[in-house]
Amino acid sequence: MTRIERHKRDSSAAAMLLHVYAADPHDRIICPVANDAYSTIFGIISAEMAVLRIAAEIEPTPWRLLDWYQNDCIAELGGMTAQQLVMLGRTEAIIGFLHRITREHES
User: Fold this and answer.
1) What's the domain count of the chain?
2) Smallest Cα–Cα separation from 92: which of 26, 7, 34, 13?
3) Strand pairing category for 29-34 and 37-40
4) Is 107 exposed, middle or buried (0-12, 13-18, 19+ CB in 10 A)?
5) Tens of pLDDT along the chain (107 residues)?
6) Contacts 24+ apart (CB under 8 A), 81-90
């Protein structure tokens, strides 16, 4: 990946994180409406945004959230990153994984 490609990726990710952490907390994710979109109370968001919004409830630090999303391999989900799984259309698996973590943390 070239320096320009990395800069574009990082700029896009930073913009996305602003939307993730600025989302109205009442705008809950309801259900998938397609392989790459989810309905919320107020509209439709991308699968990537759905995963990041749910994960942001667990990880309050933006740069850690992005690092997890792009780089941490999830052993329970075949050793792929959340980003890879979203690209493969396996968003529901990640969302289920994040919900299990939340339930275990609350117990």
Assistant:
1) 1
2) 34
3) antiparallel
4) exposed
5) 676 665 455 567 777 777 787 788 788 888 899 878 999 998 999 999 999 999 999 998 998 999 999 999 999 999 999 999 999 999 999 999 999 998 887 87
6) 82/51, 82/55, 83/48, 86/47, 86/48, 86/51, 89/35, 89/36, 89/47
Which residue's entry shows tokens 């529901």? 92
Tokens 């994040």, residue located: 98
Could you tell me the pTM of the whole model?
A: 0.83
Token pair of 19 as six digits: 């939307």
Quote the domain boundaries for residue 14: 3-106
